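Form P-L/3: holo structure prediction, ligand zinc ion.
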Amino acid sequence: MKKIMPIGLMSIVVLGIVSYGAFFVKTAGASTEPNIQDPMLLEAWTRLYNHHDPVQLWDGSTLTGRDLAQYLMEQAIPVVWDTGHVCGNGSCSVHYCAEETCTYEDGKPGVDPILVYPTKAADMPSLVATLAHEIFHRTQPFGAVPATRFEEYWAFLIAAKISNAGWPKFGIYDPLDSGHLNLWIKENKLDPYFELPEYPATIVPQVQSAYMGSDQFNGIPAEAFGPSQTSPDETK
Ligand SMILES: [Zn+2]
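OUTPUT (holo model):
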């Protein structure tokens, strides 16, 4: 049997072998399967992956369930039941903050998991919502910063839209108005979130412009509102 390959095909084969090494390295960092062992949690991930309706975000960009599911997979973030009650009566990822810089990395080998409240097991829609909420946090949408009420608002909104949940209520609250943001927390009895700061630094300039555009303080420099406001040039 003669083995004669056209030179073109030959070079493709060689390229295939060469890129195999590169592919192997790449898959070590970007997983192609979700890092989830439990069948129920895997089912929730699959439902999230099959969600394609875009949810509009604060900056006009959009996000789908698939985007979140894919992020979880690519980052190889494990999802496990919180059997050790690390999160109390809820789901979470452990967030490590040194002053104003926060990560989801405990410093030990391996990606740290999303921990899911075991009583969610009875209810697939709320499991999907929980997964969406917690993955959104893991994307660090405002950078490596502490959690804020604004980030929680969006985590809840995205989760509710993706899972068609009737809770929390969103009404016509404008989360870029801090009065609205706080009323939203109050109305939905999410009071523990009052312990968080209101806004991430990158969003503060938009909050100011929304505020200043609507009343008699229009044109007054941000510094006049006191030290709690971050001026735009301090933000990253
Ligand atoms: Zn949250």
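COMMENT: Residues 133, 137, 152, 155 surround zinc ion (CB under 6 Å).
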